[in-house]
Amino acid sequence: MIFYAFLKKTFGFSKTQSTAIENNLMKKFLIVGLGNIGEKYHNTRHNIGFKIADAFVKEHGGSFETEKLGDIAKLKIKGKTVLVLKPNTYMNLSGKAVKYWMQKENIQVENLLVITDDLNIDFGKLRIKGKGSSGGHNGLKDIQDKFNTGAYPRFRFGVGSDYSKGRQVDYVLGEWTPEEESVMIERIPISVNAVTSFINAGLANTMNEFNGK
């Protein structure tokens, strides 16, 4: 009703026109994989968001092109328009790219899904939530700062916390061990299924099916 009132007041649209526009907007999604650009970061724990985004786009037959503030893939999945973004701003400025594409494409915040690593979750475990704090993650922190809220869906892939005191940065920017990489490769398809479920089945159903897996 708020959206209808805005369209009526601003553009003089009827309720039918407003409903059609709102329905189209609700069919548009932005999936964001967080990471750092550059070959030296390619296989680091902090770049799991990029890896899942790459696998998701490949699974759905798409490809990335470099556009403003990142690499973008544009997909069609069961009648829905899905944009997949890998920001090229580096992790600490991820919010700038996310905000730009959200505004450019008129995507509703409930149709945003941010994919990131998480030190507070056991390695390989998945956790999807509709809101939350940054948990000390600089990418999530910048998105929260740019949107002035933590109320947006996020998909966290656990990387564990097997590091000594004061070595957190070295750990997240370190490469997977061979044992971790073997398990991580098995977890990527499950992660892709979770992202697809978010688009097709919604947040609540996806949380019920994939959290803790």
Automatic annotation (TrEMBL):
Give the catalysed reaction(s), semicolon-separated. an N-acyl-L-alpha-aminoacyl-tRNA + H2O = an N-acyl-L-amino acid + a tRNA + H(+)
| Stretch forming the signal peptide | none
Q: What is its main location?
A: cytoplasm
Query: What's a GO cellular component annotated to this UniProt protein?
Result: cytoplasm
Cite the GO molecular-function annotations of the record: peptidyl-tRNA hydrolase activity; tRNA binding
Query: Which family does the entry's similarity section mention?
Result: Belongs to the PTH family.
Recorded protein name is Peptidyl-tRNA hydrolase
